[in-house]
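Newbie here. three chains, one complex. Structure please?
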Amino acid sequence: MYDFESFYKVETVDEAIEALEKQDEAIVISGGSDVLVKIREGKLAGCSLISIHNIPELKGIRLLEDGTISIGAAQTFYEVTNNELVRRYIPILGNAVDQAGGPQLRKVGTIGGNICNGATSADSASTLFILNAQLVLKSKKGVHTIPINEFYLGPGKTIREHNELLTEIRIPRKDYEQFYGHYIKYGKRKAMEIATLGCACGVRLSPDKRKVEEVRLSYGVAAPTPIRCGSIEAWACGKELKKDFVELFGKKALEEVNPRSSWRASKEFRLQLVEELAKRALIQAVTYAGGEIDA
Amino acid sequence: MLKVINIKVNGIDREVAVQEQESLLETLRNRLGLTSVKKGCEVGECGACTVLLNGKAIDSCIYLSLWADGQSVVTVEGLKSENGELNYIQKAFIKEAAVQCGFCTPGLILTAVEIIGDDRIYSREELRKLISGHLCRCTGYENILNAIEKAKGSKING
Amino acid sequence: MSIGKNITRVDAELKVTGEAKYTADLVPGNALVGKVVRSTIANGVVKSFNLEAALQVPGVIKIVTCFEVPDCQYPTAGHPWSVEASHQDIADRKLLNTRVRTYGDDIAAIIAENDVAAERGAREIQVEYEIYEPILSTKEAMTPGVVDIHKEFPGNVIKNTEFRVGERSYEEIKEAEEDAVEVEATYRTQAVQHCHIETPISYAYMENDRIVIVSSTQIPHIVRRVVGQALDIPWGKIRVIKPYIGGGFGNKQDVLYEPLNAYLTTLVGGRPVKMEISREETLACTRTRHAIEMQTKALVRKDGRLIARQFAAYSNQGAYASHAHAIVANSANEFKQIYNDAEGMQAQCFTVYTNMPTGGAMRGYGIPQGAFASECQADDIAYKLQMDPLEYRLMNCVKEGYEDPHTHIKFRTNGIRACIDKGRREFGWDEKREKYKKQTGTVRRGVGMAIFCYKTGVYPISLETASCRMVLNQDGSLQMQMGATEIGQGADTAFTQMASETTGITEDKIHIVTAQDTDITPFDTGAYASRQSYVSGKAVKKTGELLVKKILKYAAAMVGMEREQLRLVNNEIVDKNSKELVLPLETVATTAFYSLEHSKHITAEATSQCRDNTFASGVCFAEVEVDIGVGKIEILNILNVHDSGTLINPKLAEAQVHGGMSMGLGYALGEELLFNQETGKPLNDNLLDYKLPTSMDTPDLQVGFIELSDETGPYGNKALGEPPAIPVAPAIRNAVLHATDVAIDSLPLAPQKLICEFRKHGLIQ
């Protein structure tokens, strides 16, 4: 038996928002794979829950008229991975969330929950960062959209106000078209893992596939929140696909991260991974984009 | 406070009164007597409590019973045919010596049911990923993979 | 003939249908919940409790603290009891303890209506402590002036033993052997946990003035004795029932919470109380595999002949003695037995109390640690001499007919060289060794191997006794009861095959009673030391022979023949010479039951005291790929070849080996219990952070056997249950050495450590 005080199951987004307005301390539960574990641990014991589990409005993945891909916050990892639109346009995201926990967890854990936890280790985070994902938050006051790189404030802390609900994740066409990316989750095992480091890298190549037109690089667990590496991205723009470039890319990544030592991994170890994974993710992204290093 | 939910369990419609705080694992074990559903970690890390929810394998320990209202649940108790014959996946587990202490077995068989139920062909590596939400300390997974491969093969080849 | 056949497990159908009942499946609906209240310090003394708030929590029925339990210390190791005081296990804990010796120590217990009330109650208890600095390493614990963890053991050393083989000391030999090469290294193993998927669980209730305990244990008869000792009540007042269990691996070869559970039911008038130990508690507060530091030296001649070795081991016992010194003594024995020193060897072992969780029995019982040292050392020697480590082993490993000079256990059948040869061929050792000779680049491959030997059961260190009961049914079928326990390894199936082999009754007519109930089941000490097929198997054989005699005697009287003229074959009484049917067994059995002249219920029961032993042995070959930049090891190929005598059921034997190899892989690559070094608080007491191998981390597991029938085994068999876990970790470590030229001297070979070592050795700039 879980130790929570009250449970309020809503059927619509508006009901959820209404409930959040009324219950100052209530916690939103969607798939439950994170909140229930925290309740059992005692961290959230005795809490009040507002369940948005399986609200139809929060489900579905749609291609909007302007080419934006809209992902309902309550889509499970499994549903994201196996969605046709995701497979066709943003396979990196499907691949990333297919590495969260194990198969059973991926059928209940949701992408919205993964984001709202505020964990730097979230498997969706680095990928959504390089896809410039927009998060749609709804409250009594209305709807507002913010870029994901403004969403995270610190470990477990996000910009989401108590009375707001994350309803969808949007990825504009300009951010995925002709853009190829790769996510590497580094864990000590190959499944049932929390990332020691997550690294997503995406590229858009020149038409002749010899130069980088745009690179985006992001990390989870390289800092208290997921991060984008702005300086390296600016530096890499226009560079030729040479081995030296890849090497430097790895080195430069080190300048933008700030991992900490924890019992899970030392700072030195994470820094080694930061450099190594940047190179590997870059090479793989280039390959997906049809390019080749030192071609 | 008890709330009544309606769930189809192993093909039979059931009306069950549950606590709000109850996990599906607890409801199945304690209220419906389906003790094949095992508790191993209570946080979705071992897979012993796996059941099929609308045909998909989930960890019943981190799933609230109230959410199962209106859904269909299968446990291994539901796999035997009416005349008591074992399902061919259960038979494959026996034949391949994939069973030792037996604690992870019911959950793994249900994941196998899901895997074998779709019509795709999987490589051994893909199968490893598909069963990676189950921890087993007895078998090294070797004979479990053999059993799933054999069962899948026998289904495909009729 | 049943031995050697791949019959289906007798419990397989019950387990695939979920019908097999485990302890949790049997708990009465009205059971109360018992929960241990745990210390939040690692070292100190409980001064007082404030229970006021906790007792106000709805549903909390009773709280008992360390100040109220019987003033009675008891041992917990699942060893046979010794009637000699000097051989008895150390009795160093009470049901609840005022002196806190580890983080999460048992200081109070709550009885509540349900889990939530128990949890809430526990959170409300306030404890005042006198706090000491946590002592986590053996080195700290042995520092003069440090606080004593147990007042009975000043200085924290539980035991310090030495032995020597040969006339001269290591230093004397060294002085004489001027040309010898010396190899010196310290090898370290980590604390790991069994991680049986069913966590420990029991429930207890009273029947009149007796206490009944149903528990997930490997050792029901020992639980009965220890509960009696802990509660200071006559042993006959206790009844222990053991249903199916979801794995044990040695953790349940310790008496864990059954005594406290028994005590709690007495506090609530005998109402059933359930104690379900959570996964977190299982990882941090039950038993672990001992972390051992092993300082070694070896002298070898340039041709590879081993001259002498020295071994000094420090075993981190943790908070309570449990199996204590028996573990590290086994490590030293392994080190001694597996190689033949031309001149001699010497060993010294310390077992030291610390504030870590208690080390207990775990699959291999000290041998995996000893083998890690002996096998790393073997490869380090071969590396230094630029010799093939396989040839080094063939030259120096234990010889045919070896007898341990101290325990006098003999290697009756020695298949170790045959195992090495078979593995060498099937694994392709020579080709791979050559192919991966000079690896460069960021991804490198290598092969490694490791060997081991393992005695069977505990004789002559301890008593080996087992018993069996067979009861003939009207239809000529048989009930068989064993005191030995099925814990997932397949014991019930092996015993069924043995009984069939000896009696001539087919397996389908042998109904083994799987559950043990100490009120009913004949005595056996239980599942440990890979002993049951050997020791308890002898009881099956003896009982079976007795039963057959009785059946034939009855049959002979029925037909007016001599007993000696008859045989029981395939459920039929036949003429010994003509092989012709005399009577179906069913006819004999039915007549025996209902004869108006001579009704007799044919049963047999026998105890077999085993005063024999032999060694099993084997080898592991591993092929790895090391990704240097990210510190990862991929196992490309792994093969275990075992010398375990005649196999009772080859298919199940192979499955046992798979499981052991998987446990060895976890030991090698990632499993390790971690603690906050300042507070002693466990850091990874869950299955997300404790890295048990998943299916994706486990390669295909190759298995081979050399079957030499051992005359001391009841059916030519010897130990198999534990051995597979032993050689895997050193084989992988040695493969990494081959691939990278970097010798990692501690387990696990986890990425962060590898990165650090690779950097130190210049593989990462």
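Moderator note: Residues 291-459+612-760 of chain C form a domain with the Aldehyde Oxidoreductase; domain 4 fold (CATH 3.30.365.10). The radius of gyration of chain C is 27 Å. Thread marked as resolved.
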